[in-house]
Amino acid sequence: MTRPTVADLAAARERIAAHIHRTPVLTCRTLDEATGARLFFKCENFQKAGAFKARGATNAVFSLSAEQAARGVATHSSGNHGQALARAAAARGIRATVVMPETAPKPKIDAVRGYGADVIFCEPTNAARQTALDAFVADTGAEFIAPYDDVRVIAGQASCAAELIEDVPDLDAVIAPVGGGGLISGTALTIAAHAPHIAVHGGEPAAADDAARSLESGQRCGNDAPDTIADGLKASLGEITWPIVREHVAAITRVDEDAIIHAMRLIWERMKIIVEPSCAVALAAVLAAPQHFENRRVGVILTGGNVDLDRLPW
């Protein structure tokens, strides 16, 4: 299967409902004035395990057959997907193992272990992650649950946008950060199925801009070891997510590191909520590309709040 169907999206939403939060939508007049848009923030920083990743990981784990589940699950992750998979595996009573870069934030490492998963460390490159993960799966037969390029994961992530357009039915646009593309793919499929008049946009670190380059060139591009404060957005688009992005995403706006930090601080100061740098990329993109959003009603997906409080960027 190359992408989840509308039926898959509906089944995923029903499957995970008892295991996740329906997160709130918040507004902020100050940020409306700063952007010239009417913003509606979907707050996945309040999600189980602190990020939207709980949706996809939970759907994937609870989709497994008994035989698959008995072999355990494994993934590679800089943190949020690893935490989400560890939590979902614990809820089903199965083993989880997460390959993590040595540079992953300590709170994310601690959280993965806190949910009962084993951690295998690797060098901080996408190639090293995959090599370590492949070796573990070959040795154990564990079921690989990809962080984003997995139909089950994409279907779970799609539930976020489904809730958003129910709670705010008259949006003109939705924007989400882009890493490997699981969230924006699920968002795009939901919007295409239920509200095709809404434009889907992405925000991406300029230092990890494979998705923007892919859209511009028409060919899937990659990053191996991008250096950005947005640690959750270092992955490149996958074989499943790229065609969905190419078909359904109107534009992807690049933002530099200073813009990400500025947007993160704005959210902390003005909305009084904790978000991580990757999460702030969506607001940074709205600020950087006002031509797409001015005088429009915009859903902004705040993806997570798992931040190292001892290493704040300011």
Write the layout of secondary structure elements.
Layout: H1 6-16, E1 25-26, H2 29-35, E2 38-43, H3 53-63, H4 66-70, E3 73-76, H5 80-92, E4 96-101, H6 106-114, E5 118-122, H7 126-140, E6 143-144, H8 151-167, E7 173-177, H9 182-194, E8 199-205, H10 210-217, H11 241-248, E9 249-255, H12 257-271, H13 277-288, E10 297-302
Parallel strand pairs: 2-10, 3-4, 3-6, 4-5, 7-8, 7-10, 8-9
Antiparallel strand pairs: 1-2
Helix pairs in contact: 1-3, 1-8, 3-5, 3-8, 5-6, 8-9, 9-11, 12-13
3D structure, described in words:
It is built from 13 helices and ten strands. It has 314 residues and is an alpha/beta fold. Helix 8 packs across helix 9 and helix 12 packs across helix 13. The radius of gyration is 18 Å and the shape is globular. It has two domains: 199 residues, Rossmann fold (3-Layer(aba) Sandwich); 91 residues, Rossmann fold, CATH 3.40.50.1100. The chain has a six-stranded mixed beta sheet with strand order 1-2-10-7-8-9, sandwiched between helices. 46% of the residues lie in helices and 16% in strands. Helix 5 links the parallel strand 3 and strand 4.
Please summarize what this structure is.
The protein has helices at 6-16, 29-35, 53-63, 66-70, 80-92, 106-114, 126-140, 151-167, 182-194, 210-217, 241-248, 257-271, 277-288; strands at 25-26, 38-43, 73-76, 96-101, 118-122, 143-144, 173-177, 199-205, 249-255, 297-302.
